[in-house]
Design brief:
globular, alpha/beta
């Protein structure tokens, strides 16, 4: 038996992270969240080039499609390959047939001398790297791309940069896509962006947020657990809550199951319908996904109580704009084996650079 649902939306992804799976462990052991950023993610960001970005996005989009996710809201950073990077991501997703809303995450952590700083003074001047990131968002949106204005996080940005990002978002009538209070290192972010945040902003993580802000909060429970930053307690906020993966794939049904288990640990009276509302809230940003048709190999795929406890649900057919882009569990526009092989080649190049 099978059942059809709407297309799923991943409200926060890092498509470039698809290449990272299986990479050698860093030489320095990470004991804190900042260690994880310094030893892993910021080194990866700096090593990316256009080929890596393209094939990582294509594999990430293909795997998203194979899990019934038809729309991805992406957040990208590649400080040594900024110009054109958003178009590269959009082109890869278009080939697969998956919709993407992407942005470049501007940051001042790379100063004009090329030095990396874990934290940036609010009183610092906007760096050239941040200006280039803003320019990439501006270029991409001006050319008709679907996206937002990206900001890494307040603790790696000067106030001048945060203001510039908010102004650019207003120019394009889009929101700002920003990590907020993911760890205690960014605990002051709420105070710093309170006067800037708008209802169309995406506030990612909000684990240590200390005040009500305008915007939608995107909960990334598995990533928060993996980085040991704490539980975000999303039910404490009146904001609309959405679900993201923070780059750990785009299987949104699996993410919802984990989000429910974590919520249940926090509140034993919670019901899975709460988390499935968070999942459905993604359609606010991608209304087109409501017209997508995803067929699962399970005849209760639309039931939160069933889906929350059924771990073998698989998307077997996906229809987008009337086109069957997934048939019998396999993508129709690309050869998944070829995509994986090409992505593996780029992953090896990435690992070589990191070594």
């Amino acid at each position: 038996m099978s059942f059809t649902t709407n297309g799923l939306v991943c409200a926060h992804h890092h498509l470039y992270s698809t290449l990272v799976r299986g990479m050698p462990a860093p030489k320095n052991r990470s004991k804190t969240f900042l260690d994880i950023l310094n030893n892993i993610w910021w080194r990866i960001d700096a090593a990316l080039d256009n080929e890596m970005i393209y094939w990582s996005a294509m594999l990430g989009a293909t795997e998203a499609l194979m899990s019934g996710t038809t729309c991805i809201i992406d957040h990208h950073e590649s400080p040594n390959c900024i110009e054109g990077s958003l178009t590269t991501i959009a082109d890869a997703c278009k080939v697969v047939g998956v919709r993407v809303n992407t942005c470049y995450g501007v940051t001042d952590r790379w100063d004009d001398d090329g030095q990396l700083h874990s934290k940036v003074s609010p009183l610092s001047k906007t760096t050239e790297a941040a200006q280039r990131g803003l320019a990439e968002c501006d270029r991409y949106l001006s050319a008709g791309g679907s996206g937002m204005i990206g900001v890494h996080a307040a603790f790696t940005c000067a106030d001048e940069t945060l203001i510039a990002a908010a102004e650019l978002a207003q120019k394009h009538s889009v929101g700002v896509h920003i990590h907020v209070a993911e760890s205690t290192d960014d605990a002051q972010s709420g105070a710093r962006i309170e006067s800037l945040a708008q209802d169309n902003w995406l506030l990612i993580h909000a684990v240590h947020l200390d005040r009500k802000l305008k915007g939608r909060i995107v909960h990334n429970v598995r990533s928060n657990m993996n980085n040991s930053v704490g539980y975000a307690k999303p039910t404490q906020w009146s904001n609309k809550i959405l679900l993201g993966t923070d780059g750990i794939g785009a299987d949104m049904i699996e993410e919802a199951r984990i989000a429910y288990a974590r919520l249940r640990e926090f509140d034993v009276t919670a019901e899975p319908s709460t988390v499935w509302r968070w999942l459905d809230n993604g359609h606010d940003l991608f209304t087109e996904a409501k017209d997508d048709v995803v067929t699962f190999n399970y005849d209760f795929a639309d039931s939160p109580w069933h889906a929350a406890f059924t771990t073998n649900m698989t998307a077997i057919d996906v229809e987008i704009n009337g086109e069957h882009v997934l048939v019998d569990g396999l993508p129709t526009r690309v050869d998944i084996l070829e995509v994986r092989a090409k992505a593996h080649e780029q992953a090896l190049r990435l690992y070589e650079r990191l070594s």
